[in-house]
C-alpha cells in the first residue's frame, strides 16, 4: 500500500517515505520516520478499496456505531475528522479496555514499529530515534507532550489544532482535549 515497497504497517508507522503533505515520496520505505498526513489519505483509499465501501461508511459501521459515538469521519482521513470530547474519550476507553479491538491488535498498535529510526515531528523538530506505534505516538522519550507523569507505556495522538488523546494503561487513565484553536507554542507547553 502506498509508495513502491511500502505496506499498511509503513503507512501507519509513518515510515512509508511520504511527506507530511504531498504525494511524492521523499525517502525510501523504512528508511526514516516522517510524520505524514498523506500516508493516512493513502491508507483511507486502501481501506475503501479492500472493504468495498467508502472510508466514511467503514468508520461509521466499524467504529462509530458499535461505540455509540457521533464522530464525523467525512473529512480528510489524515487531518479532518470531527468529534466531541465525549467521542474522543470513548475511543480512548476502547483502547484502554478493548471490546471491539482484540487485545493483541491493541498491543501490536502500541509496540514500537521499525525501532531506532530517526525522524521529524512537525512543529517539534527532529528526533533520533523517533519511535512510533501503528498510528499512535509512544511515550518512549519522556518528557513528551503526554506530560512527565505518564508512564512509558502511554500512547496517543496530537492533532494540529491542539486536540489530543493519550491513554496510560499503567495508570488506567485516558486524557483528551478538543479544540479549534490554532496550533502554536501554547499547545507545546
Task: Characterise this structure.
- With 189 residues, the protein is of the alpha+beta class.
- The chain is 30% helix and 13% strand.
- It contains six helices and seven strands, in the order H-E-H-H-H-H-E-E-E-E-E-E-H.
- It has helices at 8-12, 37-51, 55-67, 85-96, 103-109, 185-188, and strands at residues 33-34, 119-121, 125-127, 137-138, 155-158, 164-168, 173-177.
- The strands form two sheets. The chain has a four-stranded antiparallel sheet, covered by helices on one side. A three-stranded mixed sheet has the order 1-2-3, with no helix packed on it.
- The model has no long low-confidence stretch (mean pLDDT 91).
Key structural traits:
single chain; about 190 residues; 3-stranded mixed β-sheet; 6 helices; 7 strands
Concise summary:
The chain is α+β, with helices and mostly antiparallel strands.
How many alpha or pi helices? 6
What low-confidence regions span 5 or more consecutive residues with pLDDT below 50?
none
Name the average pLDDT: 91
Helicity, as a percent range: 25-40%
Architecture blueprint of SSEs:
Blueprint lengths: L7 H5 L20 E2 L2 H15 L3 H13 L17 H12 L6 H7 L9 E3 L3 E3 L9 E2 L16 E4 L5 E5 L4 E5 L7 H4 L1
Parallel strand pairs: 1-2
Antiparallel strand pairs: 2-3, 4-5, 5-6, 6-7
Amino acid at each position: 500500500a502506498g509508495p513502491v515497497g511500502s505496506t499498511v504497517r509503513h503507512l501507519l508507522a509513518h515510515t512509508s517515505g511520504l511527506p507530511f503533505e504531498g504525494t511524492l515520496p521523499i525517502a525510501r520505505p523504512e528508511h526514516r520516520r516522517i510524520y505524514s498526513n498523506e500516508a493516512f489519505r493513502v491508507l483511507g483509499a486502501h481501506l475503501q478499496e479492500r472493504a468495498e465501501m467508502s472510508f466514511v461508511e467503514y468508520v461509521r459501521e466499524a467504529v462509530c456505531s458499535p461505540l455509540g459515538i457521533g464522530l464525523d469521519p467525512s473529512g480528510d482521513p489524515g487531518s479532518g475528522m470531527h468529534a466531541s470530547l465525549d467521542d474522543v474519550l470513548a475511543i480512548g476507553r476502547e483502547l484502554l479496555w478493548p471490546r471491539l479491538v482484540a487485545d493483541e491488535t491493541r498491543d501490536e498498535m502500541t509496540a514500537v514499529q521499525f525501532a531506532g529510526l530517526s525522524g521529524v515531528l512537525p512543529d517539534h523538530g527532529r528526533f533520533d530515534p523517533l519511535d512510533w506505534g501503528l498510528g499512535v505516538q509512544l511515550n518512549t522519550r519522556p518528557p513528551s507532550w503526554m506530560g512527565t507523569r505518564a508512564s512509558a507505556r502511554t500512547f496517543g495522538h496530537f492533532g494540529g489544532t491542539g486536540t489530543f488523546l493519550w491513554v496510560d494503561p499503567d495508570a488506567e487513565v485516558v486524557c483528551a482535549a478538543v479544540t479549534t484553536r490554532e496550533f502554536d507554542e501554547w499547545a507545546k507547553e
